Amino acid sequence: MIPRSRATGRAFAYQVFYRLPVSVRRRLVRLATPKYIVGAVTLVRDTEADGPGRLLLLRQPPGHSWTLPAGLLQRGEEPVVGAARELFEESGIRLSPDQLRPAAPNAVVHAKGWVDVVFEAEVPASTTTLAVDGAEVFEAAWHPLDDLPRLSRATANLLGRYGIGPRAGKASPGPTA
Question: pTM of the prediction?
Answer without folding.
Answer: 0.81
